[in-house]
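Quick one before lunch.
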Amino acid sequence: MRIFKTDKEDLQEAAENIRAGRLVAFATETVYGLGADATNDHAVASIYEAKGRPSFNPLIIHVPSLAKAKEYVTFNDVAERLAASFWPGALTLVLPRVENCPVSRLASAGLETLAIRVPGHKLALEFLHACDRPLAAPSANPSGGISPTKAQHVIDGLEGKIAGVLDGGPCPVGVESTVVGFSEAGKPVLLRPGGITREALESAVGPVLTHDADGTTPSPGMLLSHYAPNATVRLNATTKEPGEAYLAFGRDYDTIADVNLSVNGDLTEATALLFSALHFLDEMKFERIAVGPIPEIGLGVAINDRLRRAAAPKENKEAVGT
Ligand code: TXA
Ligand code: MG
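Model of the threonylcarbamoyladenylate complex:
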């Protein structure tokens, strides 16, 4: 596959590939996305094929501005305020498709709603402008695997299956966007924890409802085994057993750490390193990974969500996605 750099010629060439219906992965602030022209059924179908993703699992649509988003979905008041507060950035809003919305039905898996966001990464925004199309983009990894936060992760997972990757260096946030939908009464509902914390959402719009992951979740991508390394994962480990790699957070278990997500206990730093660390431990061929305790506050909620899925039994992986 081609590795497109950040210069104008490469950016244009990558955009031409998109307009020709091919797949190009690109850097965003959260994780690398596997981009396709969202208005092209065939291109969207090839995303599902390249990832091996169940086609009932809908994709996020990326646009360069709120004004563009309004061409595809209808905003309510709370959604307007969330977009004003957090776009461009790691927040995805699930909103009703406008009438005659040109986005492929396949991208929203037949639903009447569409998940949409304006990414907060300079290169991603330039790319969206150059493409001049909305881009459907799930994380650029084989379905069920660890999300990519470097161009090399994309190459390792999808070599031979896509036209190229637009290399913007390591992703600064490191976990996927927070997905927010709306109840029938128009109240915001947290569908997937991610790069924007619940605390930040609530300081902008007040209480946000929780959708507990009990298997009836309305966000179809939130099925159990996911983000999974080849190794088995043991959570809340305060010891390291023989043969295990130990993934630590903070100083408490640093003496037994093979990788420490943040010696200083900084959740932002830990989030940025999480998927890279899992990729690295897989490359080192560890069969088992023990993960130390991580506080369930702020970005720790998104980290623990991903780690619980990484630790889930893989027989659930069939039903999974993204
Ligand atoms: O940060 C991100 O969000 C990355 C980057 C590339 O932007 N993208 C990403 O996409 O994580 P993906 O496809 O891996 O995750 C999409 C999530 C899934 O949980 C999916 O179920 C949910 O969004 N989703 C998409 N459309 C939906 C809809 N209409 N209703 C409810 N949930 C939806
Ligand atoms: Mg994903």
